[in-house]
Amino acid sequence: MSQRFELTILGSGSASPTSKRNPSSQVLNIGDKLYLIDCGEGTQVALRKNKIKFQRIEHIFISHLHGDHYLGMQGLLSTFSLLGRSKDLHIYSPKGLKEICELQFKISRSYPTFFIHYHEVKTSEKSSILETDQLNVYAFPLKHRIETYGYLFKEKKKPLHINGPVAKAYNIPHYAFEKLKQGEDFIDPETNEQIANKELTLAAGKSYSYAYCSDTAYLPELSEIVKNVDLLYHETTFMEKDVKLAKKTHHSTCKEAAMIAKGANAGKLLMGHYSARYPDLDLMKEECRSIFPESYLSHDGDIIKV
Amino acid sequence: MSQRFELTILGSGSASPTSKRNPSSQVLNIGDKLYLIDCGEGTQVALRKNKIKFQRIEHIFISHLHGDHYLGMQGLLSTFSLLGRSKDLHIYSPKGLKEICELQFKISRSYPTFFIHYHEVKTSEKSSILETDQLNVYAFPLKHRIETYGYLFKEKKKPLHINGPVAKAYNIPHYAFEKLKQGEDFIDPETNEQIANKELTLAAGKSYSYAYCSDTAYLPELSEIVKNVDLLYHETTFMEKDVKLAKKTHHSTCKEAAMIAKGANAGKLLMGHYSARYPDLDLMKEECRSIFPESYLSHDGDIIKV
User: Fold this and answer.
1) Residue A280: is the preceding peptide bond cis (ω within 30°)?
2) Contact at 8 Å (CB) between A71 and A65?
3) What pLDDT band is residue A190 in, cutting at 50, 70 and 90?
4) Would you kindly state where each structural domain of chain B is located, as residue ranges?
């Protein structure tokens, strides 16, 4: 069975929270490891509502330091401490977040019970910022009013599956399985007989990828950066009829997001960060689908299984 | 008819928000002027849910700079700007809030569209911090782990009511009403005839008062400070069986809050800031009522008319 690769939308709105939409926040669950992406006001309550075991979060990625993308951080850190967290936390963000957090710890005289590694993201091109056993995470610059980064999460190549019945028939010892999963042939240490890997294994599970692009003006080169991504979140703050407003505020229209998705040959486009001016989001979805049919609205509480 | 004097509970919880309870925040409506008291994370959404016209808020009072009492501020200020606010805002708080807000404006390069007057509260005794046509506001020190203040809102003496039929019978000119309302007798400018004020007026409406005490260890002198207050909010974080924990964390028990209310001869005691350890708040209410029968639980969304 393939490991879990799913995204929960904690906040799909823009700018100001409403009773229906929190500002930006998502949690990516890859094989039960949790990656929090942006953390607008109300994120900790959204984590509770969605019954996410949030002490499992070890990595937080902040796209930029506009309030609707980070103001839930200080409260979340405080709750981690109240719950007695001792595990280290890694926070990836443009410069400034450490200063904001540390000032508030100092003034409230409430210091975290755990160690925070602040990783300052600063790059002019797609760069690896984290590598674990299971995945690579890349940051890449977006184009917004302040320094802003997108994040690409790419699962590593997964190990092959052992073909149980065949391995048993050949009487392959268990200690040899790890190397077989990595693609090596089997060589019997006593007889020196060689059995080809492809006889003993089945295809590995697919490795999935997810890219998060918020907030950004239309940036055609994004298609290359997130090429062939399985799931692409790209902000759709405006509709094309308001493209002037999009340009002015350094946001994207539905059409523009769909063009990025199409150019990237993405599996699916996930929309979000809607301006409050649009009462009917289905019109936004139609605008995207006219260019990229696999476009979907995101709503708070949605779970997208990749 | 008496003018409105009502309190809306935006957050009745402590420390960490849950899906049922926001951290501390309240809005006091006196004659349609709104005074926001504490501003935990999620306050702006709670204001929306309670359909409060929050651009009317001109004064915000922060008790202390623990996150559960102020972390909603930055988002609220941002929303004020997004909605195009131009009216000045006055914020009363212990030292530190200005630094926190200004740092975040700077880093997010998002400055408010209106002027903020930061009033640093610093006093060792009950002191007037604001006087308007309708009320006086006093700050007084509480006893907590960091510098913390309580706030007392006292309506000024209200004008007398004109006794319409009698005034008409005497043919009193309208221009004289204002002075009559202030208690002066009427002197006819032509005849010099004097009519006693009490003939022409009815008793003034009662002037109400509200005191907010959160967070604090048991502080007996509070009874004197809020003497005869109509409505007293006093935190009840713990039950008396956990008094050691209350002492350790500089919070109060239900019994202690009730003793303050009793000593103050308060009209009503409003409880809140409950520790998450108590599943049955009715037991907390009973503990208060055993000492001070007019004790009431507060819940998010409650409106208390004084």
Assistant:
1) no
2) no
3) confident
4) 5-158+205-305, 161-202
Closest CB to A100: pick one of B18, B103, B109: B103
Architecture of domain B5-158+205-305: 4-Layer Sandwich (3.60)
Q: CA-to-CA distance for A37 and A126, rounded, in angstroms?
A: 17
Determine which of A99, A104, A249, A250 to mutate to test the interface with B (most B C-beta atoms within 10 Å): A104
Tell me whether A15 touches chain B (CB under 8 Å): yes
Q: Give the torsion sign (CA, A177, A183, A185, A190).
A: negative
Give B280's contacts (C-beta < 8 A, 6+ positions apart): none
- Does residue A298 have a pLDDT over 70? yes
CB B10 within 8 A of CB B29: no
Burial class, B19, CB count within 10 angstroms (exposed 0-12 / middle 13-18 / buried 19+):
exposed
Mean predicted lDDT score pLDDT of chain B: 96
Residue B68 annotated in active site? yes
Contact A40, A65 (CB under 8 A): no
Q: With bands split at pLDDT 50, 70 and 90, how would you rate the model's confidence at A2?
A: low
Of B67, B78, B145, Cβ closest to residue A67:
B78
pLDDT of residue A189: 86
- On whether the pTM is more than 0.90, the answer is yes
Cβ distance of A67 and B96 shorter than 8 Å: no
pLDDT at position B17 is: 86
In terms of Cβ atoms closer than 10 Å to its own Cβ (0-12, 13-18, 19+), residue B53 is: exposed
* B256 in Cβ contact with B218 (< 8 Å): yes
Q: Which of B32, B38, B68, B282 is catalytic?
A: B68
Window 194-233 of B, Cβ < 8 Å to A? none
Cα separation of A128 and A59, whole Å?
14
Cite the active site residues of A: 68
Judged by CB atoms closer than 8 Å, whether chains meet at A67 and B104 is answered as yes
Which chain A residues are within 8 Å of B110, Cβ to Cβ?
66-67
Work out the average pLDDT over A261-287.
97
Distance from CA of B71 to the nearest CA of A (A): 7
Q: Mean of the pLDDT values across residues B157-168?
A: 92
Q: How many CB pairs under 8 A join A and B?
A: 97
Interface ipTM > 0.85: yes
